[in-house]
Amino acid sequence: MAVNISAYNNIKNYLDEKHVQLVAVSKTKPVEDILELYLLGQRDFGENYVQELVEKAEKLPKDIRWHFIGHLQTNKVKLIAPFVQLIHGVDSLKLLKEINKQAAKSERVIDCLLQVHIAQEETKFGFDEAELNQVMSQLNDSPLTNIQIAGLMGMASFTENMEIVKEEFQKLKALFDQFPKLRILSMGMSSDYKIAVVEKSNMVRIGSLLFGQRV
Ligand SMILES: *Cc1c(COP(=O)(O)O)cnc(C)c1O
After folding, report:
1. Which of the listed residues 69, 72, 155, 204 should we mutate to test ligand 1's pocket, taking the one with most ligand atoms within 8 A of CB?
2. Are 204 and 2 in contact (CB under 8 A)?
3. Domain 30-187: which CATH number of 3.20.20.80, 3.40.50.11930, 3.20.20.10, 2.60.120.10
4. Does the Cβ of 186 fall within 6 Å of ligand 1?
5. Which of 28, 39, 70, 172 is least buried, going by the fewest C-beta atoms within 10 A?
6. Is the Cβ atom of 25 under 6 angstroms away from ligand 1?
7. Mean pLDDT value of segment 97-116
8. pLDDT of 1
9. Is 76 in the pocket of ligand 1 (CB under 6 A)?
10. H/E stretch holding 45
11. Can you tell me the distance from the alpha carbon of 47 to that of 20, in angstroms, rounded to the nearest whole number?
12. Tens digits of per-residue pLDDT, 176-208?
């Protein structure tokens, strides 16, 4: 399965025009595919599995900005803390505290996104609105100095019904607007990134449209 260069160029032009950042989701894909997009100028790549991310980062150019977009286990944080650019799916205070601790060891401040549960499926991760407010106020009262909450991330329901997807993105945007200090709103994937952009996403995570279907 080859990289779809023309899809990349089209998507990139579309997003640039709207000032939306593209994270190319390369999970399960070989380093050769990543390098192909790198040579076209792409620098932001997203991975879901810690071990895979660490191995790829070792092999690939050092100016790649690696995004961790999967569900992060606290015992794996230390493996990515020295170099990760942005952690998208933070869904507990416990995890934030561990990221803070490991970031301090690397003398870094790591940008994090809090994941919000906007989909209907129970299986998806993230805070609900009340929990989000609670975490934000806890962090306000006792700040963690080696992390920065840079924004919110969410995944819409897996459905053909684009009205539902749109409503879920609107809900996330409304929450995002409640916290004026947040800069990044990470929402939208291959199947729904255009809706996400209309609903004011400023960072999309696109995999299969660029790299082909995963097996
Ligand atoms: C895999 C994944 C993506 C990319 O999905 P595509 O449908 O291939 O674009 C985006 N976000 C998250 C959190 C993912 O796990």
Report:
1. 69
2. no
3. 3.20.20.10
4. no
5. 39
6. yes
7. 98
8. 58
9. no
10. strand 44-47
11. 19
12. 999 999 999 999 999 999 999 999 999 999 999
